Amino acid sequence: MRLKSYFAASVGAALRQARQDLGDEAVLMEARKAPPEARHLGECEVVVALAPAAVAENRSSETPAAALATAAPANAGWLATELAELRREVQRIAATVARSGFTAPVGDLLSAELSEVFSQLVAAEVDARLAQDVLSCLRADSASRTPEELRQRLRAELGSRFSTDSQLGRTTEPPRLVALVGPPGAGKTTTLVKLAARYGLTTRRPTQLISVDTLRVAAGDQLRSFAAILGLGCQSLEGVGALRQALEEHRHKDLILVDTPGYAPRDLDAAAGLAAFLAAQPAVEVHLVLTASMKSADLSSAVDRYAVFRPRNLIFTRLDETSSFGPILSQSARTGLPVSFLAGGQEIPEDLEPATTQRIVDLVLGRSAGS
Ligand SMILES: Nc1nc2c(ncn2[C@@H]2O[C@H](COP(=O)(O)OP(=O)(O)OP(=O)(O)O)[C@@H](O)[C@H]2O)c(=O)[nH]1
Ligand SMILES: [Mg+2]
Question: For a pLDDT cut of 70, what percent of the chain falls above it?
Fold first, then answer.
């Protein structure tokens, strides 16, 4: 078995190049960002293994002299060389597999369809372990399935890994209390206003907006301006005591939306009081607002930092600024928190949609946010 690397601008393009070169015998071993020293060859690298049959076929196209040399071993020396080379190949494959974190036994390589699926999930930036897990489930009986059946099975498998819930507010009885928390600039205030317009204004239900953002200059003014345009009540408050009082004061309203400050990692200590208050209110539904275009590792640490607020849902914004939607699925799968809403632009209230499993799977498998 031989390993060969192909570089191209995308995983798909590199795979196509490999297939063109080596035919369908090429099996995908690894797909990753090209290392810096090879970046000039292309952004992505795929490592493919050439099955023994294909190696033999390749050999048959060697020059007659070379073919003769390999086809007719003259002595034991040749055998020893061949064995040493084989050993090196096995070590290289083992190293590649170990680096990729791929858990399947080496003998259990992927079919052409499954390696296509794998590269699709890698390109969407689905968490590597999750992608491998999905593949393991599909691999069991992929040989007996048509491509369409495999696609349906993939969709079902992905859909079973995460959840969505776009019902706003936990209680069926008013008031529904919703607080948005999240990193600075994630889109909390904009999303809150979108929700207010969508669920307060259009349903003509009494809605109150509350800002407890005392960190950002004129944060209260920003929300008050939006509230004035929408004709909704708005208060800017300082401290947990005032918030407790306001929630009590507006308990006759149908929907109360609370906007909170964006705490940078080093400022999170300042969030302790508000986090403890919100986490202790069973009636308040906390949605963690995250930017879909963030790097996966940064998203994970933001989610972990904001766990002190005990969020019940995840909202993703800036879908219009990325084409890799795997992290949405991965974060919901990792935390067990349902995705509630997706925001794909700055327009209020148009650029907000309730999250559905089907929509997120579509996005991950390559349909654009705008379609
Ligand atoms: N492209 C894009 N921009 C967005 C989206 N949502 C919000 N924005 C923009 O992002 C910027 C920050 O939005 P805010 O709503 O103020 O974010 P925030 O989380 O309240 O920010 P802080 O209160 O400072 O923590 C604004 O310019 C918004 O218009 C989105 O889905 N797509
Ligand atoms: Mg804000």
Answer: 79
